[in-house]
Design the sequence.
């Protein structure tokens, strides 16, 4: 058996690019527009806002820099009306780097340098300014904090030999303090969101965000909640009997100086690598959290369950590309992975303040894509006739308790499968 093999960053990036490409072809138009149902079943176009980037030059003095030493950045679409005192903070995702070699590759891209980031980006799904698409959050202040540290906003180290900064934790602190200074300090409501590595970052930073809003005597307390999308990475055994993701995460944690940023409630009882896995953190969170995840997460299937190095014969290659190509044995392993995910949230689900939406889809990241966020017929996956946007809104506003866990594949016919 092949134990402890590390999936390479190029392989991970290729998977992420493939997933993004599939999602975009299936769920978005060529132009930045959202498509929603109008009266009489007709469909109309709602333009998505292209939001310009803000470079936070002042953060450099605090050592809060991207991998190449450039300043961190964010995109802000201001709220309006009743939403002007409410804020969504979205932590951008985009893989990790686990070695000097792989981090050098990221350093010269928008995932390691603000010099290479897109100067404006579309806000879609939960970030959309369209009331039809995003009825509960459309008029909030919506911020995307750009990802350029390679470690889920959690590292604090510097590799002098390679000239690479790992300052994710400092970026997090600097951007949050800046947003507080420009109006977020008076917020009535705050929601921290993120997808993939950003979804993992949400879990790591949820209670940290809450600490920025201490109780104020004689005034109403700010409501702070968190939504992790596609961030429930499992410490799972791969098909060779090894733990590929544990080896990969272990390298990231050590290289980037992440242990000091991990929750003390976890590191007091477990090693640092274990505390980078959400399943070992979520039960101790004090801040309300909603976990949105596909039970058959396509990134985890390729990165954790059946990475190429654990599959030298290539027997899983077809299955990882097309679920219909999976044989009975492979499907049994996938069902076991799904059951492990469901088991990992059992304790978490006992808290009335927490929410869950675990779909039986072969997907990844469902809150920022129109096709999986929107409530229109044929849009979002549904569990018990309720879609993702409605489920998240009901949970945030305490309209209903949401503990939605789908039955096993292929029972759900509302999924948008991307493999």
Sequence:
């Amino acid at each position: 058996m092949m134990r402890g093999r590390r999936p390479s960053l190029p392989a991970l990036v290729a998977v992420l690019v493939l997933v993004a490409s599939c999602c975009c072809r299936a769920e978005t138009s060529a132009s930045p527009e959202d498509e929603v149902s109008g009266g009489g079943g007709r469909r109309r176009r709602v333009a998505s806002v292209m939001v310009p980037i803000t470079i936070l030059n002042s953060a450099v003095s605090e050592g809060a820099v991207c991998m190449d030493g450039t300043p961190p950045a964010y995109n802000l679409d201001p709220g309006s009306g009743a939403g002007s005192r409410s804020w969504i903070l979205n932590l951008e995702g985009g893989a990790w780097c686990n070695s000097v070699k792989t981090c050098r590759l990221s350093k010269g891209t928008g995932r390691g340098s603000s010099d290479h980031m897109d100067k404006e980006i579309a806000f879609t799904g939960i970030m959309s300014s369209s009331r039809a698409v995003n009825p509960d959050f459309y008029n909030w202040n919506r911020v995307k904090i750009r990802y350029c540290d390679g470690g889920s906003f959690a590292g604090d180290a510097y590799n002098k030999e390679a000239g690479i900064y790992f300052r994710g934790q400092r970026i997090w602190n600097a951007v949050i303090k800046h947003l507080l200074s420009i109006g977020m300090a008076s917020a009535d409501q705050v929601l921290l969101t993120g997808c993939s590595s950003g979804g993992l970052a949400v879990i790591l930073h949820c209670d940290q965000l809450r600490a920025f809003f201490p109780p104020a005597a004689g005034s109403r307390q700010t409501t702070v909640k968190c939504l992790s999308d596609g961030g429930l990475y499992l410490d799972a055994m791969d098909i060779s009997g090894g733990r590929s993701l544990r080896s990969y995460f272990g390298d990231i944690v050590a290289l980037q100086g992440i242990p000091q940023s991990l929750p003390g409630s976890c590191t007091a009882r477990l090693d640092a690598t274990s505390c980078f896995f959400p399943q070992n953190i979520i039960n101790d969170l004090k801040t309300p959290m909603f976990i949105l995840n596909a039970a058959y997460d396509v990134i985890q299937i390729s990165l954790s369950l059946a990475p190429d190095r654990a599959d030298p014969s290539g027997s899983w290659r077809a299955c990882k590309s097309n679920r219909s190509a999976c044989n009975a044995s492979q499907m049994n392993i996938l069902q076991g992975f799904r059951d492990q995910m469901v088991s990992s949230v059992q304790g978490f689900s006992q808290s009335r303040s927490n929410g869950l939406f675990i779909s039986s889809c072969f997907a990844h990241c469902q809150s920022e894509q129109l096709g999986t966020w929107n409530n229109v017929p044929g849009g979002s996956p549904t569990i018990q006739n309720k879609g993702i946007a409605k489920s998240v809104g009901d949970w945030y506003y305490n309209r209903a308790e949401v503990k939605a866990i789908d039955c096993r594949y292929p029972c759900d016919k509302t999924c948008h499968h991307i493999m």
Q: What stands out?
A: The chain is about 25% helix and 15% strand. Residues 9-27 form the longest helix (19 residues). The chain has a mean pLDDT of 90. The longest strand covers residues 189-195.
